[in-house]
Amino acid sequence: MTALTRTGDRTTPAGVDTRLPWWALALPVAAFTVLLLLVTGPGEAAATGGDDGIGRFVQRIGQTLAL
């Protein structure tokens, strides 16, 4: 006894384009490259010698929470 089988691919509706546009791959690659270059940069950032207001603020919060 043979079973009836359907012919044709019915996994996607007719008229649906499943291909990705070129930028769907290019944008994540570009973003990853830029972020990688930022992380592995020469590290020329220097600490400022100015006001230490944020440091004192964080220290006060730590002292307050330690009570």
Please tell me about this protein's structure.
This protein is mostly helical and about 70 residues long. Helices cover about 45% and strands about 0% of the residues. It contains two helices and no strands. It is elongated. The mean pLDDT is about 75.
Low-confidence stretches: none
Instruction: Give the topology string: H per helix, E per strand.
Output: HH
Please tally the β strands and state the result: 0
Kindly, what is the distance between the CA atoms of the first and last residues, rounded to a whole number of angstroms? 83 Å
Average residue-wise pLDDT: 75
Evaluate the radius of gyration: 29 Å
List keywords for this structure.
67 residues, mainly alpha, elongated
Write the topology of this structure.
Elements: H1 23-39, H2 53-65
Concise overview:
The chain is mainly alpha-helical. 45% of the residues lie in helices and 0% in strands.
